[in-house]
């Protein structure tokens, strides 16, 4: 990657762009929507009633096509065809360590790459972080945000609500101290927003971001708008979130048109403006997923389906997915874009996860959804393969993201096969499935659980090799030829490894990751545990299933500063169900509802089933799902969706 390029974005030289009607012919083998291919002005109709700040009736659709055209257009040559199983992953990334290196004063912990992340701390420069860490008040707040305080009971002093109250006081003290330093004074609002996000105060976090925008002269307006939109989504303000995402699309379309006019006026052939592909794909994803939630609410309230809305949802996510897949292929042509290709691959796998959820919930086609998720697994495998062949080291935080993505994809497949993506609140028993389906669902759930077990218990953070060695259909491939290629490469370049170890670039791979990654994935593993338990129940091993469900509930209630369900008086405890993540809230709710269905099948366990349903209801009414779901049942598949943004990939 050349200096000056932003990591996580494929920056496209403007002269490589072509009109959409030319580019669309490249993508015709992928598109299912003929209208999206052939129409030069395909309309994206607004939900006018969901646009409180706009009066326009339609969204300019040309931005979808212009962004689809924004990729390097060089053809991708044939690559090596061998597929790498999980046993070869150790060769593609540096050894993962959970050591946070907290002793280093200038160490800036990497935020998590997870679906519910609001990475506001990325906007804080190292200089600002150092200044905050020099002050005890702001340092204490950073420790909470980074997961260094309150993550373990041994580190937490007193109850969680007291810790948070003190943290709010510390933020205000820091703001007063930095009053004469405008940049640091403004940054305290971002610090405050990060703290509020950490405990699920999404609307308060939005207010803090607005104050930061008013006070700061060095802000990144695009990144902040993505963060505000996602916070609105988490708070259940789907109409406002949709408005923000559509605003960004309109702005992007205008920017593309201005760039094209400047190119025509100046008759440029080389250089010029640049355009980040991930920005466009992220905005499209935001439009698609927020419209999906609005569609779910509409169905719940009126029990009807709007075919136009369905088409808009599918096409928004489909266009984002195809943009990312196509751009990743083109980025692989040049070695200098290898790091960017990695980010595009991550975004493509995320988008395929979203696309499968859309197919299942909007189209009602489980087979098409499973096909998308399996394609996502193929993309992750190909990323490892490409990294091996290009000698690209995958940073540990992004490898961790790849592993968790893989686990979510396996869980989604198992969820659909077990018919657990429906409304569990209205069921009185676990759905019946045939033996072949049970076998496949069990295999998917087992692989997901093996990944989480490896991430949580392995010293290197890798998946359990023993449980997932049969990851690919081609697991018996002989890798001797590839080993010989590596031997030849090292013979020709004997100093290659030594130069790599001594280079400055290695620092980015060694950068410490927030310890909250462990807490998040432990809570997320409850989903895989629940699916494995359901498989045991279907196989007739109810006692084993109950033990696994109890483990799932314990895992889902292990998040620091979470919602305690053991007492009616304590809303926040040292450990509990995450208050900041609707994704983890959905998982915690579902494992309780699934366990309740198991109890329903036994005599004299009705009271246990009622307690479990009461706990699930508390999560919806008082916890992470309070605004997100409300009285509406949101499918557990939403726990795998990801409103990603360019800021997620910034490091």
UniProtKB/TrEMBL annotation:
Q: Give start-end ranges for the coiled-coil region(s).
A: 242-269
Q: What is this protein called?
A: Uncharacterized protein
Query: Where is the region Disordered?
Result: 456-484
Keywords assigned: Coiled coil
- Could you tell me which Gene3D superfamilies the record lists for this protein? Tetratricopeptide repeat domain
Q: Which domain of life is it from?
A: Eukaryota
The question of whether Coiled coil is a record keyword is answered with yes
Q: Which organism is it from?
A: Cyclotella cryptica
